[in-house]
Amino acid sequence: MIKYQTSNNKQNIYVIGLFLLTLLFSQINIPFISSGSLPDYLVAWSVGVMLLNNKQYGILTIFFAGLIADILIGQIIGQYAFTFILTYAILFFIQKMFAIQSYKQRTITGIILVIVALLTTNITSTTYQTNFHETSIVLKLITTIITFLVYQLIIYIKLKEN
Amino acid sequence: MAKKTENKRLRLFTQESPTFLFVILIICSILLMSLDHRYHMHTHLKQKIVLVQTPFQWIINAPSRLIASIDYYLSEQNKLQQQILLLKTEANLFQLNLQKLRLLENENRELRKVLNIKNVIKNEIIVGEIVLPSHSNGVSQILINKGLDDGISLGSPVMNNQGLVGQVVRVDKNLSTIKNITSNNFAISAVSESGAISTLVFGNGSPYLKIYRLPAYEKLVVGDYLLTSGLDQIYPKGIKIGKVIKIIPTNNIQFNEIIVQPMTSPESFSQVMIIKSDNS
Q1: B242 touches B263 (CB < 8 A)
Q2: What pLDDT score was predicted for residue A64?
Q3: Which residues on B lie below 8 Å from A131 (Cβ)?
Q4: Taking Cα atoms as reference points, which of B164, B232, B226 lies closest to residue B194?
Q5: Model pLDDT for residues A78-100, shown as the tens digit of each residue
Q6: Residue ranges covered by each domain of chain B
Q7: How many angstroms separate the CA of residue A7 from the nearest CA in chain B?
Q8: Distance between CA B256 and CA B212 in Å, rounded?
Q9: For the residues B10-20, what does the mean pLDDT come to?
Q10: Among A57, A93, A105, A155, which residue's CB has the most CB atoms within a 10 Å radius?
């Protein structure tokens, strides 16, 4: 049985603020790092928020967040929305099958979801090529997982405070 | 009784299950992607949003620009002096070449008069400044400060003083996006300097360009320059694309794979020239 939690206004503002920051991060061009290896901040954010198991960040919220991201920084409308819904659905079924309670279990689930979400984003991308650079995609995967871990840590610490 | 309740909890399609909503939203997303792919709704929306988005992009990238500026200013003095000396020598050589070119230009003009040939290509050049080297889903792009208002059209070729840079792939009111020649599946019709070899050069997302299958009998050597052929009717003839740096034999002995180093990279310049095509 999935145990959903409720959030207060402070937490809502915090999650929305983090989403806006994520949108800004996505526009950063870091020198000396290949653009293909930069993390997908939105995927990291969405998985972090999904793992909160909060009633207010349900499927519709995630879907609309994906649509906003698509319009502002995306490549095609519906790409992130599709990725987020698919990831959410997978998380829902994982939680139905397994009892995920500890922080470690949530982290491992999150990493699996990040991989799924990244693959979905790549496949639905209009610039997707079958002969993509393996090194670049692996680096992107690693950087996105690291970003997700940072996000999760921030969310976990901040929500514990609240 | 307790077993029955437990079974009900484990079932996926209980009353509380949002499976129906999942399916509906996934269909919605796919529908949106299909509609956008067909009607380019995102491009129209983006053109309206770009005015709000650009200042944020500028602010968020300010630190990296600042770091780059500081790095530039802290370069060693000796290095700079050496560069000045080198540049002076180059400038002298260019002056010499310029004189030769002027002579050739006059000669060419006279010959054209004699042969009664009109200049077929009359291209206007617009100089644009790079706002930022950007990226979209892993594809490197360059944003410049010229757009529809300056007469830039979609597909216009872009170059700088070193060679070919890429092609305009999106035009907004005051901004344009350029796809780099090194981008995946970017193809350019090229000829060797001597004009004897005509081939297609491809970008593959790496910093280098490639000729996948060049007949082994073609006499292309390391150090040869490749120029645009003009056959594609997009890029004017004679723009430098890159220099051959490696010739790799393939499994098929009749063909070689050629690695070409492009003349330009987005980090090496701040201004570009957009060639305004006649039909724009």
Answers
A1: yes
A2: 93
A3: 184, 204
A4: B226
A5: 999 999 999 999 998 898 888 88
A6: 42-73, 78-119, 124-280
A7: 20
A8: 7
A9: 61
A10: A57
